[in-house]
Each structure stands twice: as structure tokens, then as C-alpha cells.
Amino acid sequence: MMKIASVFIFLLVTISMFSCKTAGKLQKTTGVISKVDTTPVAVTDTLKTVDSAELIKEVYNKAIKNKIDFNTFNAKARVVYNDKDGGDEATAFIRVKKDSAIWLSLRGPLGIEGFRVLITTDSIKVMNLLKKYVQYRSIDFLQQLTGLPLDFTALQDIVVGNPVFIDSNISSYMSDSNHLQILMTGKLFKHLATLDNNDYKIVESKLDDLNDENRTCDIAYSGYDNTSGVPFSTERKISLADQSKLNIDLNFKQYVFNQPLTFPFNISENYKRL
Questions:
Q1: Considering the domain 2-273, what is its CATH architecture?
Q2: pTM of the model
Q3: Farthest-apart Cα atoms in the chain, separation
Q4: 20 to 30 A from 213, CA-CA: which of 93, 113, 139, 192?
Q5: Cβ partners under 8 Å of residue 22, min gap 6
Q6: Over the stretch 16-47, which tens digit does the pLDDT of each residue have?
Q7: 18: buried, middle or exposed (CB in 10 Å: 19+, 13-18, 0-12)?
């Protein structure tokens, strides 16, 4: 379970490191978009420039139409990962207070809590309940791992399933009756977001490192549920590729928004401080 705790934090960090500001004029391509799945989506290199602020605003509004606005988030999810060394799984209990804290409790197959994690806007704390120690890190530790500035808002959006790294600086888009694809190209990364063209739910995010063609991140969203009044993706498949590959499945069994929450993180005096 130690590894899956690290994987979960690594997941948040790795996806967040693809965050970059984009710039450019809005462009439009013609043609048919292929059916979206977890396979990387090709984007034509033949783009026709359309310099239209009104069109940029229209596409951007579609992209953020289903963005979940919340105060608190409470969920139970099954986390399964596989990498070159094998795989593991755990049950994750996740709590989020918007713009304040992300709290995580990981339990193994027998329901025994192994790890508790608390990420705030300025710190990271990881408590190992089995080996009885706690690690303290500054939020800057995330930047040290990735070499890029990270945004706590992006972390919480990843958890609640909001589309990430989408802003009004759109470089191109392509649309048909089924899907709307929005391409944002920055200095370091390219982000292709695919939306359902009927209700504009996020279907897939594909991020590519422009300086390393082997460094990619794909996030596929499915299993949408409207119990909370907004579309919430209960099933997500995340594929990370760099020097090796990491696949993560998140399956949300329960979730609720905007209920009172606590974030217990009481550390015993007997725990080692690392």
C-alpha cells in the first residue's frame, strides 16, 4: 500500500506538471473526428487561422459549461494501478475543501488503513499508520519533483473531475456532430481536450510534451452520473508514459458534494517525524 499511496500523490503531481499557459490565435479545421477512446487522438496539421475573439469565447464557454462549482467533496473510490513492476489496488476515501485542503485515507483489502495524506495550499503531510511515521513536505516539494509551478486549484479539479488546463487561450478546434476537440499549444506542452458535442461533458484529455515525444498523459472520463445535479465522471482511466508506463483506474463508488466535512490528521507522539 506504500506504493499506491505514492502513486496517488505521483498521479496528482504528474498530471499537474502538464499545466502550462497557452497562447495563439483561434484556428479551425475541417473533417471528421474519429470515435474517442483511450487511443491517442491524431490532430491534423492543416489548420486554417480564424482570428475571432467572439469564436474563442464561444468555444471556451462550451469547454467550461459543466465545470463543477463546489464547496466540499466527499468520495469513496477504488484505485487500481499497473506499472512495469506489477500492480496493486486500494480503497481511497477522499475529502476536499475547495481552495483549502485535499485529504486522503487509503485502506487495503481487509479494510485496514495504511496511509493518510493531507495536502494544503502550502504543505504536504503523509502519515504511515502501519510503520508509525509522518513525513512533512512543503507544497514546493511538488514543484521540485516536476520542475514546474503547480496550482492547488488544478489538483482539486483533477480529484472532482473538472476539465483541467483549459483557458481562453485556445490555439485550434475541430467539431462534428459527436465531438468537439479543443487544442491548446503552449511552449512546453500540447493539450487536446475532447468534449461530447451534445452536452459538452469532458471525454478525454491528452497531454503531450513538445520536447519529448515519449512523455504523454491521457485521461479518459466515462460513467457519468447526474445525481448531484451536475455531470460527474465516476470512471476514469489515466495513462502516464515517460521512461516507463503507468496505468491508473479510478472507480468512484460513492460521492457527495457540499456536506459538512472534517479532516482528521491527529499525529501520535510516538510517530517518527521525517
A1: Clam (2.50)
A2: 0.79
A3: 64
A4: 139
A5: 167, 169, 170, 171, 184, 185, 186, 191
A6: 433 322 223 333 433 332 333 333 344 444 33
A7: buried
